[in-house]
Specification:
about 300 residues; Rossmann fold; 6-stranded mixed β-sheet; 10 helices; about 30% helix; Multidrug ABC transporter ATP-binding protein; ABC_transporter-like_CS
């Protein structure tokens, strides 16, 4: 069980016309984790997911899911993964219960072993079991897609932008269910543009940009890469001229008495910054700080790339 849930080695994809969507991507998704796969639009995330799903043929490289190579053992690889696509895909003429029963049938699950109502209860759709799927709200349709992805109880679940267009309450319910699945041993791969979600949920995060892997670290370690820190200082008089000091990376005036100062933690500390403000003849009334977060790291890495 030490083998990776997903192992990707030197994966490349070049589309007809020369568009290179993936360029030698290599990383492992450890078993039992919630793994974030982040990147700007067009970075190659969906191409990678579609290769794992068997919907896109890779140009070169290899990928295994739960130990099964996607080329040598495609049936076992597909049986080991459930994928919730970014686009909402459903048959409007079937009820949620019928949709899950059909999906289970496609995976060859005998009628007595299907868990359709259990899954609908888990995603809070039990009361909509027999309604037409076309009458469901957008958030309900997304939760139905999660249930469909889990009908064959795969050990790996891939969520591609699962909370796009979902309201706050439904988003919290969805994440609560995903965390329950993870607690039961399901490995979760998540792509999202809500970086605060990724920071709160993911054990490890990989970032792809222009088809290339530019980061792959535990979430805390990745956030710790950010060296910039912001301090807001309110002083006791109107500021006639913004002070300057070598320890300031950037300084801005906010209102008449507040300075917003950015400094690098590897070059200065808060004491030096506040000392520089006082040395300019300004008395400090109030101080607040903001630590860098995943969004800062993400922007710095993707801009540099």
């Amino acid at each position: 069980m030490t083998q990776a849930a997903i192992a990707i080695q030197n994966l490349c994809k070049t589309y007809q016309g020369g568009k290179r969507a993936l360029d030698g991507v290599t990383f492992d998704v450890p078993r039992g984790q919630i793994f974030g796969l982040l990147g700007p639009n067009g970075a190659g995330k969906s191409t990678l997911i579609n290769i794992l799903a068997g919907l896109v043929n890779k140009t070169s490289g290899s990928a295994t899911i739960w130990g099964f190579d996607i080329d040598a053992h495609p049936r076992n690889a597909k049986a080991s993964i459930g994928i919730v696509n970014q686009e909402i895909l459903f048959d409007p003429f079937f009820s949620p219960l019928e949709a899950l029963e059909i999906q289970a049938g496609l995976y060859g699950i005998p009628k007595g072993e299907r868990r359709s109502m259990e899954l609908l209860r888990a995603v809070h759709l039990e009361d909509k079991a027999n309604a037409y799927a076309r009458t469901l709200s957008g958030g309900m349709k997304r939760r139905l897609m999660v249930a469909k992805a889990m009908v064959h109880a795969p050990p790996v679940l891939v969520l591609d932008e699962p909370t796009a267009g979902v309201d706050v309450e439904l988003r919290q319910q969805l994440w609560a269910y995903v965390q329950q699945l993870n607690a039961r041993g399901v490995t979760v791969v998540l792509t999202t543009h809500y970086l605060e979600e990724a920071e709160a949920l993911c054990d490890r995060i990989a970032i792809i940009n222009h088809g290339t892997l530019i980061a792959n670290k535990p979430t805390r370690e990745l956030v710790g890469m950010a060296q910039e820190k912001v301090v807001e200082v309110t002083v006791d008089c109107d500021i006639a001229a913004v002070p300057d000091n070598a320890c300031f990376q950037k300084i801005e005036l906010k209102g008449e008495r507040t300075l917003v100062i950015t400094y690098r933690k590897d070059q200065a500390n808060a004491g030096e910054v506040l000392g520089a403000v006082q040395a300019a003849g300004l008395g400090i009334v109030d101080v607040s700080t903001r630590e860098a977060d995943l969004e800062d790291v993400f922007l710095n890495l993707t801009r540099a790339a």
